[in-house]
Amino acid sequence: MRLLQASHTITIEDLPGLIAEHAESAGIYDTAVFLVDIRETVLRQLTGRGLDAAEGGQRFTIRGSLPGRAYQQVTLLAERDTDGRPEGRRRWWVAITDGVERLGVLRADTSTADEPTRQALRDLASMIALLLLSKRSFSDSYARLVRTEPMNVAAEMQWNLTPPPAYAGQHATVGAVMEPAYQVGGDAFDYAVGGSILHMGVFDAMGHDTTAGITANVAVAACRNARRQGASLTETSRHIEDVLVEQFGTSRYVTAVLAQLDMDTGRLRWINRGHHLPVLIRGNRWTTQLDCPPAGPMGTRLGLPVTEATEHLEPGDRLLLYTDGITEARDARGKEFGRDRFIDFVLRHHSGRHTLQETLRRLMAAVLDHHNGNLDDDATVLLAEWRGSRPSDLTP
Predict the structure, then answer these.
(1) To 10 degrees, the CA torsion angle through 168, 125, 63, 40?
(2) pLDDT by residue, tens only, the chain of 396 residues
(3) What is the pTM of this model?
(4) What CA–CA distance (Å, rounded) separates 386 from 174?
(5) Which terminus of the chain is more exposed, N or C, with fewer CB under 10 A?
(6) For the residues of 194-216, what is the DSSP string, one character each?
(7) Which helix H or strand E contains 310, and what residues bound it?
């Protein structure tokens, strides 16, 4: 609690020293915080020095390192090697998470290894997550630290627009990813909670340039504006279209799937504005495409009727919303990644072996590998799971 109280007027740069000072008073020594980049490939140490607050720090890859394993598994791991540490000290790596959003890992040494010590490490990691979240929104240093390459203007807008990449609460979890992370153009995702309703949407704007990014930003902002005034799905999509036409005429358009999930009952409603249809996964075996007559893309003024479809989910059902950059990514021979491979990947990796966010990290890595690391189109996935009244924890 004293750590929280002392943090109110500090910046990201001050965090390493403040954490170390308060951790030592609890018998936790030599602490260091490592933050994950936005593509989730590396962990970089927050030192508080330099323009990116990482000057002079260590760096670990997610693949093939003990800190990376703690991050992937969202767990606490101990090092076997004791070289360079005082006798009797043990080194730990602890995932730093807020709910299901992974921010990085904590390194720390202790003189004991009992369960109270382990719980103290988890508690410290949870506190650090809250401190990071409270500082990152106004910190350019944080933004620099979590990037490994330059970012274009469209991506700058999109990453500042989107909600966190993972959420858990009220019987549901949500995860989302976008690629190419540093050059994204017209893709966007959105989700929000209002009462017992989980609102979700995936958007794909015409083009792959800065104007496409602006178009997607306008569409998401219009969506939120209508939703926050109590508009239905149909009314929301018409409001988005009106705003797009007002700004761009009919020269720019956006396809989208907009959905609402009642987290108390599992009732799912959605509309299709010229987009790829959602996929429902049930029992980790059965999959189906959720059909809905398409209305025209928003911004085209085609005047097609908007149909609201309904499905009642069962506990454990997962909903996939995605853009065509996922399924149409091609390898050197021109072979697409494909919808079947996409769904099969989710089935194999999210069957209890990995968390939702880790499944999506591995999925996007596989898509990038398939396309030799350079996508021709934006690729976005939003994966939501409804647990119903199951008593299992939402967080790892």
Answers:
(1) 50
(2) 688 888 889 999 999 999 999 999 899 999 999 999 999 999 999 999 999 999 999 999 999 999 999 999 999 999 987 776 777 789 999 999 998 899 999 999 999 999 999 999 999 999 999 999 999 999 999 999 999 999 988 889 888 889 999 999 888 999 999 888 888 778 999 999 999 999 999 999 988 788 999 999 999 999 999 999 999 999 999 999 999 999 999 999 999 999 999 999 999 999 999 999 999 998 777 888 899 998 999 999 999 999 999 999 999 899 999 988 777 767 667 777 777 888 888 877 766 667 888 888 888 888 777 766 666 668 899 999 998 866 567 776
(3) 0.91
(4) 9
(5) N
(6) ETTEEEEEEEEESSSSHHHHHHH
(7) strand 309-312
DSSP E strands in 166-253: the ranges are 166-169, 172-179, 187-194, 197-205
Q: Which two tokens stand for residue 370?
A: 């398939």
From residue 331, alpha-carbon distances to 334, 347, 378 in Å are 5, 22, 15
DSSP state of 170: T
| Cα 160–Cα 164–Cα 169 angle in degrees, nearest 5 | 150
User: Which of 263, 358, 393, 258 has the alpha carbon at shortest distance from 317?
Assistant: 263
For 65-117, give the DSSP string: SHHHHHHHHTSEEE-S--TTS-TT-EEEEEEEEETTEEEEEEEEEES--SHHH
In whole angstroms, give the CA distance from residue 281 to residue 381. Answer: 14
Residue in this structure with the two tokens 């990995």, named with its chain if needed: 354
> At 317, phi and psi to the nearest 5?
-65, 145
Residue recorded with tokens 């966190």: 164
Burial class of 89 by CB neighbour count within 10 A (0 to 12, 13 to 18, 19+): middle
Q: For residue 206, which of 336, 305, 298, 304 has the smallest C-alpha distance?
A: 298
